[in-house]
């Protein structure tokens, strides 16, 4: 059983690591955020404090609650120090197998007995990552979604060695931070990445064929299926370069139904990745706001 004395260590102070650290610290757990970059850690801490302060302004948190969450969060550039005695390790470093194995190799020997070892990977093999440590049964994928403080889902990804005790404890951790967990057997694209890639790819085929305008395709999914964001808007947010990489991987592993739409390839070649470049399916102003009426039309393609 979990208790508030259990310690969490999150490795990687990028966007996902920042959100994950916030989730645990704000839920009552002493949380250490680790990164080799002191600058990244300072930026992450500032971001977490900003989320908490925003909650106070909106009346969702009291000042005392926000201050207590800030006090539970600490940062460290030395992994072995931070991981000492931790009951949960969540690594969210770059999608590089060697880097992930190195993190686990350094942290696992100093974790608490029976600690859960979680990887936030969405593309690499949990089984292969787990094979690098002497306790592969304690390794599980814990795939969070961005922004973590708003998105309720966590995909728990089972490697070939993941045991029932690890699954049960991982579900407890998710419950403790107010997330809904689902179980996924290790497979390309898991559930959400696979479905989202197919939906976005099909939307691009429809746009290329002139079935409807970008705005109307997105409106159809928002209003007809109650999606919070249309597939083309989501592609702009995710980045079409990232989406193309995922589609190529799924195409190579799962077959023709994931062949990337030529329009995605064309947009990536033109550097139109989405919001991060100011131009994707839609155009964006300097503040990142979408320019009304800027969606691609069949006549432009």
Describe, in plain words, how this protein is organized in 3D.
The protein is of the alpha/beta class. It is about 45% helix and about 15% strand. The protein is built from twelve helices and eight strands. It has helices spanning about 15-25, 40-55, 65-70, 80-85, 95-105, 125-130, 165-175, 190-210, 215-225, 230-240, 240-255, 260-270; strands spanning about 5-10, 30-35, 75, 90, 115-120, 140-145, 155-160, 180-185. It has an eight-stranded mixed beta sheet, with helices on both faces.
The gist of it:
By secondary structure, the chain is α/β, with parallel strands linked by helices. It has helices spanning 15-25, 38-57, 63-72, 79-83, 97-107, 126-130, 164-176, 192-209, 214-225, 231-238, 240-254, 262-269, and strands spanning 7-11, 30-34, 73-76, 88-91, 116-119, 139-143, 153-158, 180-185.
